[in-house]
Each structure stands twice: as structure tokens, then as C-alpha cells.
Amino acid sequence: MTDVVDSDELLRRMQRARAWARQEERTWRGRSEELRATDPEGARDAAVRTLTYETVLAVLDEILTPGKHADHP
Asked: Average pLDDT for consecutive 10-residue bins of the chain (73 residues)?
């Protein structure tokens, strides 16, 4: 079943998703740094997750703030 939402609710949901992705990106970046010396494989996994959340953030930023990443291809 799908819910019909208005544009304000959709905007709020995307803003919450962006805030959540930003927090996850920070968490994984910290984890990658913590593991670098003791668990290189775990650090690489955390770095990949960091890049994933950076990408999600870039997409959500472009949707919510068009042109924010205009200097990037």
C-alpha cells in the first residue's frame, strides 16, 4: 500500500534522510579511522560505507538545494 503525501511532508522526509545519512557518514568515517591501525580490512569496509553515504548526501543535497554541487561533473 502506498501513502499519498503532500510536498511539505516529502520535503521533511528527504531532510530527515539527509540528516540521517550525514550522521551515518560521520560514524563510518570515524570507524574507518579507528580501525586503520588494527584492522585494515575493516577500515576499508568502513571507508567504502563512508563513500556510499557521501554519495547519498550529494544526491539529497542536489535535490533539496539545486546547484549546490554545480562545480562537480
From this structure: 84 96 97 96 97 95 82 57
Position 65: which residue type?
A: T
Helix axes 40-64, 7-35, angle to 10 degrees: 160
Reduced 3-state DSSP string for 24-65:
HHHHHHHHHHHHCCCCHHHHHHHHHHHHHHHHHHHHHHHHHC
- Give me the torsion for CA of 29, 32, 37, 42, rounded to 10°: 180
Q: Is residue 26 a contact partner of residue 34, using CB atoms and an 8 Å limit? A: no
pTM for this entry: 0.80
